[in-house]
Amino acid sequence: MPCKRKRVCRARGGGTIGSGTQRGTGRELTTRRCFPFNALPPECQLHCFSFLSDVEKCRAALVCQGWSQLMRTSRLWQRADFARLGCVWGWEGALLPAARDHERWKERVKNYAYHLTSRGASLTALCASFDLGDEQTNWTQFLLSFLEGVSCRDLEELELNWTVTPLEPLPTPRHSSMAQVGMTKADQVINFQSLLERLNLVSPALRQVSLPFDWSEHSVHLLTAFQQLKCLELRNFWVFKGVCPSSMQQLTRGLPNLKRLTLQVLIPVRDLEVTYTLESASLEFLDVSQSRGLVFNLLALPQLKELKVRKTIRGIILNGQTQLAVQSRWPCLYSLLQEGVPNLQTLNHHQLLLGWRRELDGGLAEVLAQACYCVQHSDTWLL
Question: Which one of 1.20.1280, 3.30.450, 3.40.50, 2.40.128 gives the CATH number of domain 40-76?
Answer without folding.
Answer: 1.20.1280
